[in-house]
TrEMBL record:
Its EC number is 4.2.1.59. GO terms for cellular component: cytoplasm. GO terms for biological process: fatty acid biosynthetic process. This is 3-hydroxyacyl-[acyl-carrier-protein] dehydratase FabA. It catalyses: a (3R)-hydroxyacyl-[ACP] = a (2E)-enoyl-[ACP] + H2O. GO terms for molecular function: (3R)-hydroxyacyl-[acyl-carrier-protein] dehydratase activity; isomerase activity. It is found in: Cytoplasm. Pathway: Lipid metabolism; fatty acid biosynthesis. Its main location: cytoplasm. It comes from Cohaesibacter celericrescens. Gene3D superfamilies: Hotdog Thioesterase.
């Protein structure tokens, strides 16, 4: 088996956004500006709290990021849904990285807790997902818990993130 990479640059991540990394009909990341990852700093099949895999990524924040102008006028903050989407994006990427086939689609999240904000003053956002279970078969499914940190401080957690890889009928 070919050795998989354990980290990815922005340029490498963009090949996934264009559908080139895992092949047609398989998980791919969105293109900018919806791509919420600048780099994947670590990915492994056996790491994380549950020993069933993890992925860590980063996103550089500048005051020019597109969402600050519209959320909210005079009170800019990164929408929490974009952080959640980053965690789902990472889970879809993880399924493709494992070699699982099908188009990645977010399914659900069990619980989200917000405890801080990402503002234009933030420099670095870090994301992590630790997998509890990966189902391989008719339905390829990743289930994990995630977190988002702004300049090293946890600003929200998400439990039971679920992303499936669905094959065309």
């Amino acid at each position: 088996m070919e050795k998989r990479q354990s980290s990815y640059t922005y340029e490498e991540i963009l090949t996934c956004s264009r559908g080139e990394m895992f092949g047609p009909g398989n998980p791919q990341l969105p293109l900018p500006p919806m791509l919420m990852l600048d780099r994947i700093t670590e990915i492994s099949e056996d790491g994380g709290e549950y020993g069933k895999g993890q992925i860590l990524a980063e996103y550089d924040i500048t005051p020019e990021r597109w969402f600050f102008d519209c959320h909210f006028a005079g009170d800019p903050v990164m929408p929490g849904c974009l952080g959640l989407d980053a965690l789902w994006q990472m889970t879809g990427f993880y399924l493709g990285w494992l070699g699982l086939e099908g188009k990645g689609r977010a399914i659900s999240v069990g619980e989200i807790k917000f405890s801080g904000m990402i503002t234009p003053a933030t420099k670095l956002v870090q994301f992590g997902v630790e997998y509890k279970r990966v189902m391989k078969g008719r339905l390829n499914l990743g289930i994990g818990d995630g977190w988002v940190k702004a300049d090293g401080e946890t600003v929200f957690t998400a439990k039971d993130l679920r992303v499936g890889a669905f094959k065309d009928a």
